[in-house]
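Handout, section B. The chain below has 210 residues.
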Amino acid sequence: MSTSPLALQSEGPAAAPIADQRFRHGRYVIKRPWFSFFERTFRVFAPDGSLALFVRHPVLKLRGEWQIFADEARTQPLVNVKAQQVIAFNYTYDLRDETTGAQIGSVRSKGIKSIVRDQVEIMDVAGNVIGHLIEIGYSILRRFIPLLTSKHDIEIGGQVVATVRQKFRFFIKEFHVDQTLVVIGDDVDPRLVLTCALLALVNESNREGG
């Protein structure tokens, strides 16, 4: 039997630990204000409209670092995302469980390629590249016309496992994440996939300076 980290949707979802359920919804809506000064906030909503996750991203921190919380009051930190380097061209971010300190995986930007189009390698805890986050569509035009909506795909093992699509809204940035394309197996942490979707939105905020 194949040991691929992916399974076809028709086979049904793999059993998930209770603690990971907030990361295993099929679809999410992510919203953030257009402008902020000292920190950016992202609210991640489950399909029923309830708040699933809350992200705090400080703007003025020297080393790139941000956190994912279970609540807006930030009393329950879940995932820490921290750059290995203070200044670098190819940034590598480590993802860690805030409760246990265990590493979840890493993501690494592709340097020059990421300037004109987001291209990020997704790595497991052993440092093996298992997938990519890729910006699609008119990425170069978006660098000059921020009103154009963004599109990203996340692929694991050669298959697209999630899409991130921006919906145009006045006064707020809104993104729809779809993870129903395939079922991710237990050997791929679902926190890694959703954090990659959030990373695409953080990168966009950095480019816009808002």
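Note. The helical segments are 112-116, 139-144, 190-208. Compare this with the example in section A.
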